[in-house]
């Protein structure tokens, strides 16, 4: 099975942009130790200090979904969502 990529774009609330940037850097450092995660890249949007994009590589969609279920169950997602201006936009993408 080929690995899958997940691309997620977040928009932090303006007053929380700096704190959210720190959180994203923590995710970049810790996520690769999650079961099935092959790597993660973090991008800032040069024209918008509140916007961040993660590009994650996973062994399978199931590995990613299990990770997300754990994040939600732990309450970590609620803490992250409180920093956001709106829901993140995400998709599973295949490299061509």
Structure description:
This protein has a single domain, classed as 2-Layer Sandwich (Alpha-Beta Plaits). The longest helix has 14 residues. It is globular and about 40 Å long. A hairpin with a 2-residue loop joins strand 2 and strand 3. The chain is α+β, with helices and mostly antiparallel strands and 96 residues long. It has three helices and four strands. The protein is 35% helix and 34% strand. A four-stranded antiparallel beta sheet has the order 2-3-1-4.
Topology summary:
Blueprint: E1 4-11, H1 17-30, E2 37-45, E3 48-58, H2 61-74, H3 76-81, E4 89-93
Antiparallel strand pairs: 1-3, 1-4, 2-3
Question: What would you say about this model in short?
Answer:
The chain is of the alpha+beta class.
């Amino acid at each position: 099975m080929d690995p899958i990529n997940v691309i997620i774009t977040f928009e932090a609330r303006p007053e929380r942009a700096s704190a959210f940037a720190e959180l994203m850097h923590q995710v970049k450092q810790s996520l690769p130790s999650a079961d099935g995660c092959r790597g993660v890249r973090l991008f800032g949007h040069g024209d918008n200090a509140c916007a961040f994009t993660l590009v994650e590589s996973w062994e399978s969609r199931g590995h990613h979904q299990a990770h997300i279920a754990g994040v939600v169950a732990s309450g970590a997602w609620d803490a992250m969502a409180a920093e956001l201006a709106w829901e993140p936009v995400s998709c599973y993408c295949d490299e061509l």
